[in-house]
């Protein structure tokens, strides 16, 4: 549809944040499998090859507030654990890129430049979304939720560790192999620290 054409042809940081926040909220409400099916109905493989690889992974570090980052962290964790398309041969590199981007976002607590970037985006005007359907017309508002969309998750680092441990218990050996083969050593250490803080292990 028009939304995905815009992502391919004329994306801006504000548009990407709005799109990702909307998509993250959809994942929290309906689950990763239903979200993947909806997007892949537009074009086969669009979610992994288009949205995740080209938009989600590079866009994760562009969020400002704690609430926004928790939203994206929880949704990304769901994708890592629930998206069957990331658990097939050949998808390990993308799984590792997604986890690496999430770990970078969780470690980035400085927030420096956020106000400048927000100003550079042109404020909160509606012109970014002119011409799109009502369902997407206020995507930028989704990127700055007025209510906490993840009230039950107070520590996204612990949440990531707990969910990966749960997934690993259901699929023994899969997560360690993915992490070792596709995640940088420094980020592996960060993940191990999260697991230790949460009192879980990935085996």
UniProtKB/TrEMBL annotation:
- Tell me where the signal peptide lies: none
**Positions of the Exportin-2 C-terminal domain:** 2-194
Transmembrane stretches in the record are: none
Superkingdom to which the source organism belongs: Eukaryota
Which InterPro entries does the UniProt entry name for this protein?
A: ARM-like, ARM-type_fold, XPO2_C
Listed GO molecular functions? small GTPase binding
Which Pfam families does this chain map to?
Answer: CAS_CSE1
Gene3D superfamilies in the record, alphabetically?
Leucine-rich Repeat Variant
Q: What name has this protein been given in UniProt?
A: Exportin-2 C-terminal domain-containing protein
In its UniProt entry, the species of origin is given as Elliptochloris bilobata
């Amino acid at each position: 549809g028009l939304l995905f054409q815009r992502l391919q042809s004329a994306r801006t940081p504000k548009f990407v944040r709005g799109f990702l926040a909307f998509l993250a909220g959809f994942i929290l409400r309906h689950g990763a499998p239903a979200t993947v099916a909806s997007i892949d109905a537009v074009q086969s493989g669009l979610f992994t090859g288009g949205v995740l690889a080209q938009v989600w992974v590079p866009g994760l570090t562009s969020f400002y507030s704690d609430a926004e980052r928790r939203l994206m962290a929880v949704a990304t964790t769901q994708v890592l654990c629930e998206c069957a398309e990331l658990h097939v041969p050949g998808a390990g590199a993308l799984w590792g890129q997604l986890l690496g981007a999430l770990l970078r976002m969780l470690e980035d607590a400085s927030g420096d430049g956020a106000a400048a970037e927000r100003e550079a985006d042109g404020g909160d005007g509606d012109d970014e979304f002119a011409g799109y359907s009502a369902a997407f017309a206020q995507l930028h508002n989704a990127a700055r939720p007025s209510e906490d969309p993840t009230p039950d998750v107070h520590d996204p680092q612990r949440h990531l560790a707990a969910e990966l441990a749960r997934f690993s218990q259901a699929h023994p050996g899969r997560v360690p192999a993915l992490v070792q083969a596709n995640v940088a050593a420094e980020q592996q250490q960060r993940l191990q620290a999260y697991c230790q803080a949460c009192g879980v292990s990935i085996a």
